Amino acid sequence: MSTKASIFYGERFHLYKEVADDFAVHLELTAEEYEVEPGRVRLRIPQSIWEVIRQHSEVTNYQWAEKSDIEIQDYVNERVAERIKAVEDAASDNEKSRIDLSGFWIFGAATDPMDEQVRNGTEYFKRLRDEEKKVLDAIEKAGTLTTLN
């Protein structure tokens, strides 16, 4: 089973996220020009592929970067309670399995104890917040660089 969640792909490239890695986007290029030196890889990215990457990057909203611990805790408690209720109300084992898989990478199994799911979810969203803050800081620092026209 593939763990790639495609964002966009074409004949010579694949832009995707790994299912268990919300903190990065992966680009796989085929038959493109590249140079490798110690500590550096230089790629030639065709304009059409760059446009796909650029357009995708504009939809990232970094909604967790400014969330407080309390906001994260409230959100996680609500989501976990919804998952547990959904499993309890499920009409079939098939539906229970679908609910169990939904959010598994974040909370664990929907049938796990509530406190365990809350702990997992809280850790996940705090890591997500920290990663989003790092990205926003890097964007801000990059924005202060001089660009060549």
Describe this structure in words.
This protein is an alpha+beta fold and 149 residues long. The protein has 2 domains: 4-58, no CATH class; 69-143, no CATH class. The protein is 51% helix and 16% strand. The protein contains 5 helices and 5 strands; from the N terminus they run E-E-E-E-E-H-H-H-H-H. The protein has helices at 47-58, 69-89, 93-101, 104-107, 114-143, and strands at residues 4-9, 13-18, 26-29, 34-37, 40-43. The strands form 2 sheets. It has a 3-stranded antiparallel sheet with strand order 1-2-3, covered by helices on one side. Helix 2 packs antiparallel against helix 3 (93-101). The longest helix is centred in the last third of the chain and has 30 residues, at 114-143. The radius of gyration is 20 Å and the shape is globular. The chain starts with a strand and ends in a 6-residue tail after the last helix.
N- to C-terminal distance: 45 Å
Topology, number of strands: 5
> What is the mean pLDDT?
85
Q: Helix and strand succession?
A: EEEEEHHHHH
Number of helices: 5
Tell the overall outline. globular
Biggest sheet descriptor = 3 strands, antiparallel
How much β-strand is present in the residues? 15-25%
The percent of residues in helical segments reads: 40-55%
How many separate domains make up the residues?
2
Structural class call reads alpha+beta
Overall radius of gyration: 20 Å
Question: Which runs of at least 5 residues are low in confidence (pLDDT < 50)?
Answer: none
Report strand order across the widest sheet. Answer: 1-2-3
